[in-house]
Write a structure and sequence with these properties.
alpha+beta, five-stranded antiparallel beta sheet, binds molybdenum atom, binds ligand MTE, five-stranded mixed beta sheet
């Protein structure tokens, strides 16, 4: 078998070798032998490599995040002077942590402006000296498919602030809101079960009061001076310009986002999208495709691609194309120490970031849940015609996108479809 494989390889360019690999034309033993070559050892097709070299960085520069803030005016657009006046700068900020007046929790020491016990930024940083943590997270809006940005978020676990209030009893939930131009109609609030605040399920990092992104103070646009960050949540739980936290005996959610038919309990989903592919390509040219996958709480095992000839019949009962001839794409390895992007200080993952090795700055696993990974594939040339390109993920539980949570209002995971025209 090894001999015939050598012979087979000698006869084909490196390029075509990969097609055979991917399409399983080489026998199982040949496949096993080839798979021992690491991805780095196989020089990539130049067109594909070029597309890979142009990919976005994994982390996002804070000011490049897409912004979906509400408010009239948007709190981050206020002048520095006004932000000082309303407590949105580090030296003027203070946070009230109190019982919900309508569903009272028993707190021995609520933190209030009235009593002069509200938490200021200095006190938060003091807590940070002992308790601060950092973790990586992709910020994705429940209602927008493309992530707004990816970053390393740093702050103090919310439970440390809860303990300052000497909580006694009748606490089932916490809800919180940010500065809203002193107009009750503009309040944007979110909530969490108290369990999630006190304990971290499934190896998740804690919920934090966040003041740094990618190693720098939060910018006004990202929610300065302090926002909530919930590792596994969609954007709407991550309240910016945080001013109030209420511990409550209410037993159910009261998020602003429950309006508009949103599923407010949904955690980040796993899905794939393309970033580059030729919209038009010649019939003798292979097709380089790149993209990203969001690894949700279910993790990411594979990204797959399928190019279907338009008009070709497909079973209507198979809504999610589970029986299509999907082909595995290459999930690109994690960026090396200096390739992360995001304007990190010294281009390095901050020391102590959960899930990363302190010495090397390498992630302990890749792809990493709650982060993006990039992928690439060179598909073989096709006969002239019109085609539909699709990509999907298989999560770490083996579920193919859009399963197991296909419904739109718990986060976008519809299988992406793009047109490709092949010309003679
Ligand atoms: N105070 C406040 N916080 C907010 C919002 C808002 O409008 N006001 N928008 C939320 C929504 S819907 C999303 S998707 C995220 C976006 O976070 P980002 O602006 O850092 O990308 O912020 C959340 N936090
Ligand atoms: Mo959002």
């Amino acid at each position: 078998m090894a001999d015939s494989l050598d012979h087979f390889l000698a006869e084909h360019s490196r390029l075509s070798r990969r097609y055979f690999l991917r399409y399983g034309v080489a026998g199982a033993a040949g496949l096993a032998a080839l798979n021992q070559l690491s991805a780095e050892d196989q020089s990539r097709d130049p067109a594909l490599q070029k597309a890979i070299d142009k990919l976005e960085t994994n982390l996002t520069v804070p000011k490049v995040f897409r912004d979906v803030s509400r408010g009239n005016p948007k709190p981050h657009s206020l002048s520095e002077e006004k932000r000082k006046e309303v407590g949105l700068t580090r030296d003027t900020w203070s946070l009230e942590v109190i019982s919900d007046p309508e569903n009272k929790a028993r707190l021995g020491n609520p933190l209030t402006k009235e009593k002069g016990t509200a938490l200021n930024f200095e006190a938060l940083l003091k807590l940070g000296e002992k308790h601060a943590i950092r973790f990586s997270k992709v910020m994705t809006c429940l209602n927008i498919r493309t992530p707004l940005g990816t970053g390393i978020w740093e702050g103090v676990p919310l439970r440390e602030i809860l303990w300052l209030t000497k909580p006694r009893d009748n606490i089932r939930r916490v809800f919180y809101n940010g500065y809203h131009n002193d107009d009750p109609k503009q309040i944007f609030k979110s909530s969490l079960p108290i369990d999630r605040v006190l304990e971290d399920p499934d190896g998740l990092p804690p919920v934090i009061l966040c003041y740094k992104l990618n190693g720098e103070w939060l910018t006004p646009e990202r929610g300065a001076p302090v926002r909530m960050v919930i590792p596994e949540s969609y954007g709407f739980k991550n309240i910016k310009w945080l001013t109030h936290i209420y511990f409550s005996n209410l037993f159910h959610a009261n998020d602003t986002y429950a309006n508009g038919n949103n599923d407010i309990d949904s955690t980040l989903k796993t899905y794939a999208s393309t970033l580059s592919f030729p919209k038009q390509v010649k019939s003798n040219q292979p097709i380089p495709i790149t993209g990203y996958a969001q690894a949700g709480t279910a993790g990411l095992a594979k990204v797959q691609v399928w190019i279907q000839k338009n008009g070709e019949k497909f079973s209507r009962d198979d809504r999610y194309f589970t029986t299509a001839p999907w082909v595995d794409a290459e999930i690109l390895s994690a960026p090396t120490a200096h390739q992360w992007g995001g304007d990190l200080p010294d281009n390095k993952i901050p020391i102590g970031t959960i899930g990363f090795d302190n010495k090397t700055g390498k992630p302990n696993t890749w792809p990493m849940p709650l982060m993006k990974a990039h992928w690439a594939i060179l598909m073989p040339a096709l006969p002239a015609g019109k085609y539909t390109l699709r990509c999907r993920t298989i999560d770490a539980n083996g579920k193919a996108q859009p399963m197991p949570r296909p419904f739109r209002k718990s986060g976008h995971v519809a299988i992406e479809q793009k047109d490709i025209v092949v010309t003679t």
